[in-house]
Amino acid sequence: MRRKKTPRKKILRTCFIRPQSKMLDDNTPAQESGKLACGDGEKEVALCEANEQGFKPAPEVNMTPSSRFLQVELELNVHLRRLTFSNPVRYIYNPLEYAWETHRCYVEKYCQTGQRILFLGMNPGPFGMAQTGVPFGEVKSVVDWLKITGEVGHPQNEHPKRRITGLACTQSEVSGARFWGFFRKLCGEPALFFRHCFVHNLCPLIFMSESGKNLTPPELLAAEREALLALCDIALCQAVQALGVSMVIGVGKVAEQRARRALSAADVNVRVEGIMHPSPRNPLANKGWEEVAKAKLVELDVMSLLSNP
């Protein structure tokens, strides 16, 4: 079978590893020269050729969009395990490892043919995707509206103030409640939203300092941040091609700018736009995020896709 060539990206072979829903031994952070590893991944790396890096395109024949999408994420996990991070990073969670069961439920339920719009967040929040495995995954929205089920395990090394309790988490994440709450009001049922749209995060990792403070990718050391985002950029391009969307809407400036840069560099021909992030850290979002988001989606001609006939 002939492979497709990914423009401007070196294509190399790697292996695919299926995460488990329970705690993974290869997610154990390790201290080496003052650096924290995402996971040693020795067994996985042994299955690959020693000096290989990069990605290969996910096979498309006889695969559903959800299968292709999950395969891209599985491969990204393999590469993320090889990264190391220095202070201020002390804890790293990857919900695509320990919350794989609920994440897979979300993807298999809602990733489908014909979706034109990809809403793109940056990375998980401590009381959202970190708990549920779903982007912007505030628990109430995930359980009550999206009807996601499944077991959520634990990262190997948990911060005592940032325990993972999965779908039993009682703390609400404001960003996720605003995001999914807005589309719930607009669409009524998830089927209407997901008929044309899907939601994804650029980076699946959540980082914390010694105190448990959430660290966003822009707060990482520059070299480590770029090594991380270079891998996430490749995975984003592959995910966009697997989904076949025509527009990526970054939720927040950072996600929008990163998506525009990554997709342009890879010659992936999709439109990239952005909407305001619903974070409570954003004073403008606290003054009426829904109205701002609605006005932007009207401008982008997306609102007509999300209204009941």
Automatic annotation (TrEMBL):
All copies of domain Uracil-DNA glycosylase-like, residue ranges: 109-282
InterPro entries hit by this protein: SMUG1 (IPR039134), Uracil-DNA_glycosylase-like (IPR005122), Uracil-DNA_glycosylase-like_sf (IPR036895)
Biological process, per Gene Ontology: base-excision repair
Gene Ontology annotations for the cellular component aspect, listed alphabetically: nucleus
Record Pfam families: UDG (PF03167)
Subcellular compartments: Nucleus
Keyword DNA repair: yes
UniProtKB keywords: DNA damage, DNA repair, DNA-binding, Hydrolase, Nucleus
GO MF annotations, alphabetized: DNA binding; oxidized pyrimidine nucleobase lesion DNA N-glycosylase activity; single-strand selective uracil DNA N-glycosylase activity
Family statement drawn from the similarity comment of this UniProt entry: Belongs to the uracil-DNA glycosylase (UDG) superfamily. SMUG1 family.
Name of the featured protein: Single-strand-selective monofunctional uracil-DNA glycosylase 1
Organism encoding this protein: Seriola dumerili (Greater amberjack)
